[in-house]
Amino acid sequence: MEPPSLASLQLTTFVLLLSLIFSFSLPMTQTDPTMDPTMPRSRSVQMPGLIPDDILPHEYTRFAKVQRVCDSVLSSGINLQFDHNRINALKPQLSFVKGDWFQDPAHAPLMPFDSSDTNSNTSALPDPLSLTTFLLTHIDPRRNFKNALNVTGALGIGISRNGTAPEMGRYLSTEFKFWPGSSDLTIIFEGVYTESDSEMVLCLVGQAMLPTRESDPKNPWQKWLKKADTRTTHSLLDQDDNIAITLRYPKSFTLTSWAVHGEVRSLNPSSGTRYFDPVKLISQLGAYSNYQFGSEDQVLTACDPYPYQDDVIKSQLEVYKGSSFCGFLDGFMSEQMLFVVPNWNCTSNDAYCKKLGPFLTNRATYQTNGGFFGVAIMMQDVRCEPRDPAVTGGSYGSARVSAVFRVVPPGVTQYTAFHRTGISGTTLSAEGVWNSSTGQLCMVGCLGSSDSCRSRICLYMPTTFSINQRSLLLGQVTSLSKEREDSHYPLSFERPSHPSELWTKFMASSVISYQYTKIKQASALLERNEPSAFGDVIAKSLLSYPRKGDELGELYRLSNLADDLSLHVPAIPDPRPSKRTKRPFVNLEIISLGSMLGRHWSATAQNGPLPIDSKPGELGPEQESTTGQEMLMNVSAELILTGEPYHNISTLYLEGLYNPVDGRMYLIGCRDVRATWQVLSGIANLEAGMDCLIEVKIEYPPTTARWLINPTAKISISSQRKEDDPLHFNITNLQTLPILYRSQREDILSRRSVEGILRVLTLSLAIACIGSQLYYITGKSTVIPYISVAMLAVQAIGYSIPLITGAEALFEKITSERSSYEPPSYNIEKSQWYWAMDYLVKILVMFAFLITLRLGQKVWKSRIRMLTRSPLEQWRVPNDRKVFLICLGVHSAGFLVALLVHLINVSRRPGHQEAYVDSQGKSHKLHDLGIQLEEYIGLVQDFFLLPQIIGNYLWKIQCKPLTKAYYIGITFVRLFPHLYDCVRAPVINPYFGEEYEFVNTSSDFFSKFGDVMIPLVSILFMVAVYVQQRWNYEKISSTVKSGQKKLVSMGSRVYERLPSMSSFEAELVASGVKEAEITGDFRKDAPSQLEEI
């Protein structure tokens, strides 16, 4: 034999060290660390019990005690034949989540529960749920027994009102978590797994931190239920390692053999403080166990004769009979609830009609008084096995199905119900068969863990939908028992569908169809409300409303139109109430339109139209309208309104006609009023529990003239019942916020394009006006000093602000509004066209700013020259100091008045808030002075002629400093945004939430009143400048002062400083020559320099 190599010695040494490490570490995790007096105790003590990986060996330190406690289990076990695959499959097969546990009333309960999480009215809350979870954490492949395997596990036992306890993570420890509304105990076990002829058995011994009880058996948890600051946590928990658990699993998973039974018991003396009464556990085998179909005899007995005749499916409805039943069943029932239908047509006594079928009822279900509001049934662990006709010997396809039906009481969440696995009087295990010849799934059901199967369940999958049939699954539970105490009224349930599920769940387009039944009533409604006024006829000829487009494919065009007619938008009552109310949200989903049911987004689809049925004598899918040019279209929809005022009409099923000529929809509505038999006993004219005496009218905005007409839809809902009828309700009128049609969703981009072009044109016009002023003063140097520098400064500031802040020029208000409703998903800034447009605007703004500065420079230089000519007579030179002070005073007073009015308006609005958030998520203060000041600066720019008017008055001008093209052109440039804002459609931000209802960017400074008054005042200023320049001061004063008197004599000093034009030009030339001589720049070419001056 060759000596071992160095590598093999190193590997052997590593394995020995690894084994040594685990031999020291694992006992520490399984022994009792709380026996150490230095270890502090608390209310939630955690013991670091690390769970090793399955590949590594596990040392079982309590083997002797396990052998003693589990002796009876080991003695009855059979020899096991295992391989690694079987061992790996045991862990998920033997684990269960959220089963049920209970204790018989006795003197030693296991744990306390603090119900202080509820208010005094606990009847409105669900009862606490006692749930348990068991995890098999390790299986040792090493065999200490021929008939057993060593295993470890963890058990969580909890009580919680919301069903969240117990919580089991990857790293487990013995702990007890306790807070109001939840108690959670974790126990760590080790033991053996063995099998008998009919069962798989786990026998385990564990340890836990148990809550200590008081000696008073009537109030054992007095200390735990006290306030937190009075608890002495060091004495409330006690380590206990004398806990045993036995779990028994059936080897065969069948209709009557599917329950896991267990018991947790204390090994301590019954007189000790650590003792607790036995805890019973019950759960069902999980998804990792193979179900064995074998109850054909019971199914045939329950469903004889097949198909069982019931009243679930009416004669006019079709059910699914295809080959994909199992796939559809799994898709429909995946984590979904079946809602229980009230026994509204029961005519027996109260006790009989209040029964929830064969199920036991808890407090919350019983309080529904037979109406079963909020009660549902969860179909769990569905196993569907299709069978080929060639195998079964029949001519039709079939499938075998097993499932568990679990009652979900009110208040229990869908998530909690889906994960529960307990077995009780609220669970029904079922097995049955589906046959494609009838489309009926007939099953036999067994209540709880009983072997007695006394219920029949029939399920159908409708493929025909109508105004009073919108469910994807219909079912009924009937009694097989002839005994009176076990009989009950047939319990009906249904799986309601969202409209989108009609075409997403049924992938094959030829499977489903819609049956119209209310077209005649809708036609009568249309005739009564058909507009005949002359204005409506003109509107029809000028306006266009949503209709089919010109795309390829009929279904594609109808899908686009259905998308336009669907509404998902907030609304307000019409007329709007004086007091603020919570806005309802309108969800109108089009189900079928014309020959289409659902949606078909592929323009190249070759599928034919879906079948749309009508009763004989009724209108077909389309009929010719009164105009003879368009076609009325059949339509069905579902309307959902949110808000307390609309709870009686919160969900309406609609069917009727749509007229694309005037964009109006005339619909008949049905609402589900199924309630207890006492409520509906005296109400007539119900259709399968539906109130269909409802009329709905919807008016859509036109697709054209959007900027001139507010793009909102109007909805009117009225009841046709008499006022003394219990189902009567007052008429409801709503107006939505602005909506966007499919083609108009690009209008946000087109509007920005149009406004960008308008900015370019207005800036170009402004530049042309400034250029005309520069050209005007070229040959009239005497008028230059009388141009107001303050006026030019206002314009220069207006052009400089966009360059500094990046704001849009001239259309700042409109741009700010547009940015508030533009959704970020459009990402329009990435378009090269808009980048080029923005750069062009900035270039034009820069050019306008520079030429405005150039004009101001000429004015300034002319005044300097005038001042150097007469340095001792400065009063003769026009000065803007007084002009500036007067304008500052006027605008300061105006700003204070406007701010005061704004604050008064805000204070009168209901629902005060200090800030709001825009669509970009940015917060803005509602009363920010900076915002008000920024808006007022725009007003100062609109009144840019005010400094010139004041200067003309102070300087007593006898000339025309401004050309008409300048002051008239700039005035209209400034007024154009206001005029555009008046004619365009008002934009209400549809992306603001309810709390931003009173944040209106079109209020105060920039209201519609301002859009009218500001242009009027600006035009008055323009006329004032024209008058001042048209007539000199002498004519104006003589006109104002009736008579021949003059305000100032002709010989006064004011007129002495105004020489003739020729002498004034000579003085300017002379002053320039003198200035050149002083500076030493007078050269031989002085005449040319003088000409330039």
From TrEMBL:
It catalyses: S-ubiquitinyl-[E2 ubiquitin-conjugating enzyme]-L-cysteine + [acceptor protein]-L-lysine = [E2 ubiquitin-conjugating enzyme]-L-cysteine + N(6)-ubiquitinyl-[acceptor protein]-L-lysine. Pathway: Protein modification; protein ubiquitination. Residues 1-31 form the signal peptide. The chain crosses the membrane at residues 756-776, 783-801, 833-856, 883-904, 1005-1027. It is a multi-pass membrane protein. Residues 744-1036 form the SWEET-like domain. Its EC number is 2.3.2.27. It is found in: Endomembrane system. The keyword Transferase applies. One of its GO terms (cellular component) is endomembrane system. GO terms for molecular function: ubiquitin protein ligase activity. Keywords: Membrane, Signal, Transferase, Transmembrane, Transmembrane helix, Ubl conjugation pathway. Residues 67-279, 302-489, 625-730 form the DUF2921 domain. Its main location: membrane. The keyword tRNA processing does not apply. It is an enzyme of class 2 (transferase). This is RING-type E3 ubiquitin transferase. It comes from Carex littledalei.
